Structure formats: C-alpha cells, structure tokens
Amino acid sequence: MLHLKEYVSHVKPGVALDVGTRFGEFAFTLKEAMPEGSRVIGIDCDAETVRQAGEKAAGSGVEFQVGDGAHLDFPDGSVELAAISNTLHHIEDYDAVLDEMMRVLRPGGTLLVNEMFSDHQNEAQENHFAQHTLEARLDRISGGFQRPTWKKAEILQILERLDLKEVQILELPEEEAMDRKLAEKTARLTAAVEKKAAGHPDFDALMAEAREIQRRVEKTGIQRCTQLVYIGRK
C-alpha cells in the first residue's frame, strides 16, 4: 500500500500483528512501515495458508502463525500495533475479532483497519467491485463465507464504537502491481465459476456474469478499489 509509513510514524518499536493475514501481503507492508527493532507477525486460521506464507517470507523477518483472530494467543496490552486488512468482510463475528485486537493492544498502541469499499470508485475500480462480488458469491456456494464489499459509511459504522483516540480516516490507493494481479484473476473467472458452481442452479447466470466482467475489463481495465484506512490509538 502506498504511503502507509507516513501515517504510522508515531508507532514505537514493538510487536505488530496482521490478523487474517492470508498469504502475508499486508504483513510485508507492515514490515516496511514499522520502526527498526519491531516484530511483525501474520496470523491466520488456515494452516496451509500459513505454511505458504512462511515459505514466501523466508529471510524477510516476517513471522507467520496459525491462530484465531477472536482468541489471540497474546497477553493483554502486549502489542504495539494490531492490523486487519481486507479481511473483516470474511468474518461472521467481526466485532469479536476487533474486541480481541483491542485487548492485546497496549495503552497508546495503534489499531489499523484497512478495507476496500464499493462506492465513489472510477470505472476500472467498479470492475474490481463487480469481480469481488462474484467471487464472494462463489465462495459462499463452495462453503466459504464472504460478504459483498461494504460502502465506506458501512465500514465506519462498524468501527465507530471502538474506544480510540487520534483517529485518522484515510483513502489510499494500492500499488499498480496489485492491479496486474487483479487482471490475472479476471482471466481465470470463468474457470473459477466452473470449479465452484458446476451443477448449481445459478451456474449459467454466474458464467454470464463472469464473461461480462471479462468483457468490461478488456474495454476499460481493472484497478483495485480505493482502500479505507482507519487508524486510531487505544
């Protein structure tokens, strides 16, 4: 993510957690943003994902652990920064995870929530929103859990109950490399429908939606939705 470091310049050396890290993309961003001497740990509930993230992180100084975001294995007040990036919409009880992140933060520690939002995006970003919405439907069909992308105001409503001070509400773009990854995913959309929705009553409609997204991306491109970054201190 572009320019994150300047917005967390107040953070002291210490432990930084990336909750729901998946393959560690945001954990590596935190590694660049945290001051020297910090320990960056990515946590995910899926052991295979953690294994792959660990292989990817070899020599980077980022650690990965299997863990439950609603039951973090860290003492109260032991963490300098707790972050969650584009993961809230994958969690049924996101309040429990946010409360647990607040518990492990030290007084004065920083909570960081990064979540893409769906409204006020340009045409290429709307293509990303459409793609993400289709992927969410496919995940639910195949037994996973994922909500469609929230609007900005909906994300802020979720976070406003947290007892934080010095809150910064930012809109930050992603790096262009992320857009290239999205374009690669677009090319595989129809294959994803075949894999996850074969035999489903909505298969034909889902396949038509995937092809329409591919057509739109060929015409106007695809760009990752602007990220809402919410930073506050405990």
Structure explained in plain terms:
By secondary structure, the chain is an alpha/beta fold. The protein has a single domain, classed as Rossmann fold (3-Layer(aba) Sandwich), CATH 3.40.50. It has nine helices and seven strands. It has helices at residues 4-7, 25-33, 47-56, 94-104, 123-141, 152-159, 176-187, 189-197, 203-220, and strands at residues 15-19, 39-44, 62-66, 79-85, 105-116, 165-172, 227-233.
Order of helices and strands: HEHEHEEHEHHEHHHE
**What shape does the CA trace take?**
globular
Number of strands: 7
Total helical elements: 9
CATH topology name: Rossmann fold
- Gyration radius over CA: 18 Å
The CATH superfamily is known as Vaccinia Virus protein VP39
- Residue share in helix: 40-55%
The CA-CA distance between the termini, in Å, is 23 Å
Q: pLDDT under 50 segments (min length 5)?
A: none
Average predicted local confidence, pLDDT: 93
Q: TL;DR of this structure?
A:
The chain has 234 residues and is of the alpha/beta class.
Give the tags.
234 residues; alpha/beta; Rossmann fold; seven-stranded mixed β-sheet; 9 helices; 7 strands; globular
Sequence-ordered SSE layout with sheet pairings:
Elements: H1 4-7, E1 15-19, H2 25-33, E2 39-44, H3 47-56, E3 62-66, E4 79-85, H4 94-104, E5 105-116, H5 123-141, H6 152-159, E6 165-172, H7 176-187, H8 189-197, H9 203-220, E7 227-233
Helix pairs in contact: 5-8, 5-9, 8-9
